[in-house]
Amino acid sequence: MDRRTVILLGVALVAAIVAAWAVRSWMAAQEPQVVAEPTPAPPQDRGTEILVAASNLRAGLIVAPEHLRWQSWPGENVSDAYITRKTGAKGDFTGSVTRDLITAGEPITNARMVKSGERGFLAAVLSPDMRAVTVPVNPTSGVAGFVFPGDRVDMIVTHQVAGSDGGRRRASETVLTDVRVLAVDQKTEDIEDKPSVASTVTLEVTPRQVEEVAVARQLGNLSLSLRSLPSDFEPAVADGAPAGKNAASHRPPKPGNTVTWDSQVSKVLGGAGPGSQQNVVIMRGGKSAAQNFQKVGQ
What we know:
The protein is α+β, with helices and mostly antiparallel strands. Helices cover 18% and strands 28% of the residues.
């Protein structure tokens, strides 16, 4: 084979290789392109809904449903002590009392609440430095059963005293005003909101007023006078938290300062009771003397 033939065969081989590569490239360009789909992001962890304080709840607050709310919480941070939708409900804590301050958004736990009927519930309801004292009542002295826990009342004692004429006189005097009712019988909340005749009422007073109530019980008959809610009752509330009828208040009772004698009620009663005489100072020259005179109409 001569040299010319070899060159022609080499050129033909190179041309065949180039043609085959061009055809292959063209066919590859004609194939449908496969678009890589993005890898889907893993589903976002929305967490677990737990029960938290809707606002700042102070210690001793009687909890209402509006004081609590559900809030999403990272699943890895949910403690076994937290209340989830699977383990509890708002209603489970209605009427409970906070043991200490719970700030807004802070998880609710059983350890931070005292439920009605549990040991220490009444002590948790009491305002700081206050005391609980129980007095007996009947349908008349207890406002016919219309006194409920959380109401405010005045305490009146009616008793006999010795008049200036040696006789026995009757008088009613207000011992304490603006007293918070803690419980009626052994109920610290009124779920049905219906009147019921009770035999005892537990009141919140100061340590000194406990002694005053004890003396008043021995003096005579005690009566309770219900105070009006709009004008007299100003419940203390947590920051932004709605206050219900049972909201606790730190306002202490006040001493009473009014007295009514039997002769002021009945015009047919005479005699000289306290307040029925007029003290007059008689001046004679440089000397003075005090003398009591019977008031007309007493």
